[in-house]
Amino acid sequence: MRDFAKEILEVLEENARATPGEIATLLGRSEEEVAAEIKSLEESGVIRKYMTMINWEKIDDGYVYAMIELKVSLQRDKGYDAIAERIARFSEVQSVRLISGDHDISFTVRGRSMKDVAFFVTEKIATLEGVESTCTHFVLKSYKEHGVILYDRTQPKRLVVTA
Amino acid sequence: MTNSEIGAENKKLAMEKPALWRPDSHLSTTVREMPPSGIRKFFDIVVGMEDVISLGVGEPDFATPWHIREACIYSLEGGHTSYTPNKGLLELREILAESTKEDLGLDYDPEEEILVTTGVSEAVDLAFRATLNPGDEVIVPQPCYVAYVPDILLAGGVPRPVATRLSEEFKLRPEDFADAINEKTKALVLSYPNNPTGAIMTREDLEEIADLVMENDLLVISDEVYAKLTYNGRHASFAQLEGMQDRTVLLNGMSKSCAMTGWRVGYALGDPAIIGAMTKVHQYTMLCAPTMAQVAAVEALRRGESEMKAMKREYDRRRRLFVSELERLGLPCFEPKGAFYAFPSIEGTGLSSEEFAEQLLKEQKVAAVPGNAFGESGEGFLRCSYATSREEILEAIDRIERFLADLGL
Questions:
Q1: Alpha helices in B47-137 (DSSP H)
Q2: Across the interface, do B313 and A156 touch by the CB < 8 Å criterion?
Q3: What is the ipTM of this complex?
Q4: CB contact under 8 A, A159 and B42
């Protein structure tokens, strides 16, 4: 049964618009079975949201992205969760992760301009209690996001008919 | 005139009027009489056509996984461009022995019982050339891949086609097999999972024909290049049957399962005497399979498992999608159990396979291969490859639907 759920998730991960009927055909199951499984996956929080992968660079008003790494000093009774969850609440922040290595927390920010992002970091993040230092990396170009290649590629042609 | 004067005169005449050069008269009779491949015609029609959706391709639509390509590039940078041993890189043969043990539970000695070839095509040719004497008959269940019959002819053998039927899921039935056997029969070709039908033969199916193979002292040449693309249950090989491993030349390759058609890597597993004989022909013709492709094959076998499985899962989904859509259109179709082809019957349309395929291509720009290209018993069918994206499959189905509507069906 887990395999059935995984197969549904694989199809949906690739195409959020796939309908239960279409998924049922692909997996050789009934539409009702698929719909019921999706419902339970939604209810249990395995499926969080159905989204669209957008290449914003293709339209004029592109966004500015930055990856920011933080060093954090922990306080008594407060783990990393407290500060991470606090950062996550900002709508500018797209992802927040606890990481190993030189820094403790890494998060990505989306803004309308570099200035936007820079002010956000200095005013809202650097001033948070426990933040020791920040390191901001602006994204110059994105080649692949969520497993999807963003640059244009020409596909090599196959012969039309072969044995 | 003296003899020498006549000689000089003739020479002069020949210089003035050289004999008409007829290259045809210099061709081998076997090759001249060999019919061209049934798909040749479609190449000619397709040239210059735009916006064709192809269900006619016998290869994956995926590019070879990047880690495999990358390993090859790395080895080229390292200068690994010389010959390998005739039988192939020992490392590759050792991995093949391991993976065959894992998949089929069979042991093959990498030194004596494994030969790496330039694609399975070469292995098929070698198997016939190494074993056939003039006049030896080879039983070929059809519809099947287009190369067996010509390769048997080139080796001086006599192909003996045996029809398989939709009503029997395109399996070789013992009765039909028995009928085709005579005192000249030397070998049987098995190619399951089958191109073009998608049929498989289970262990039980194979057991039903094993007695006849034994009684008649036959060799079995088993092309299992689609083995890893078996969707219902596990692939069964004739070589797994008791006492049959040495009687079987098992052929397989990287092309279909790893999306590596252009690399040309195949292999043959079998008795040392037969593999040795095949190696003899191989060393005088091919010398060795391309070195860089062998390096890529090592990488594919070592680390390609998860991508291979992902591709197989995708083919399986397309298979279900395509077959259910064909059913919706009312084209009867045997549910393919392996490979990546569907083989719907088009008999109800009143058109022959070739008429159907040609008109479909010209009118709706969908390329598929007429079933009779794979033997007479393929007449009335159309081979459609579903190794193409789901979007293209659905677009092709729309066009076939329009085509059938135009026919008044």
A1: 66-77, 90-104, 119-131
A2: no
A3: 0.79
A4: no
Nearest to B145 among A10, A26, A163 (CB): A163
- Whether B24 contacts B32, CB under 8 Å: yes
Q: What is the dihedral of CA A136, A140, A146, A151, to 10 degrees?
A: -170
Cβ-contact B239, B212 below 8 angstroms: no
Nearest beta carbon to residue A25 from set B146, B147, B321: B321
User: What is the least distance, in Å, from the CA of B37 to any CA of chain A?
Assistant: 9
How do B137-142 and B185-190 pair as beta strands? parallel
pTM: 0.88
CATH code 3.90.1150.10 for B33-63+306-406? yes
**Which residues in chain B come in under a pLDDT of 70?**
1, 13-18
Domains in chain A, ordered, with CATH?
2-43 (1.10.10.10), 56-145 (3.30.70.920)
**According to CATH, what is the number of the domain B66-303?**
3.40.640.10
Q: How close A160 comes to chain B (CA, Å)?
A: 6
Helix locations, chain A, DSSP H: 2-14, 20-27, 31-43, 80-88, 114-120
- 3-state class of B197 per DSSP? coil
Contacts of A153-161 with CB under 8 Å at 24 or more apart are A156/B63, A158/B54, A158/B57, A158/B59, A158/B61, A159/B43, A159/B57, A160/B42, A160/B43, A160/B46, A160/B52, A160/B54, A160/B56, A160/B57, A160/B367, A161/B39, A161/B42, A161/B43, A161/B46, A161/B54, A161/B56, A161/B57, A161/B367, A161/B369
B143 touching A (Cβ < 8 Å):
no
Distance to chain B for A155, nearest Cα, Å: 9
Domain ranges of chain B: 33-63+306-406, 66-303
- Residue B18: the pLDDT is 65
DSSP class of B381:
B
B328 reaches A (C-beta below 8 A):
no
C-alpha distance from A76 to closest chain B C-alpha (Å): 45
Task: Verify whether the Cβ–Cβ distance A161 to B57 is below 8 Å.
Answer: yes
Instruction: Report pLDDT for A155.
Output: 81
- pLDDT at res. B365: 96
| pLDDT-flagged residues of chain A (< 70) | 1-2, 60
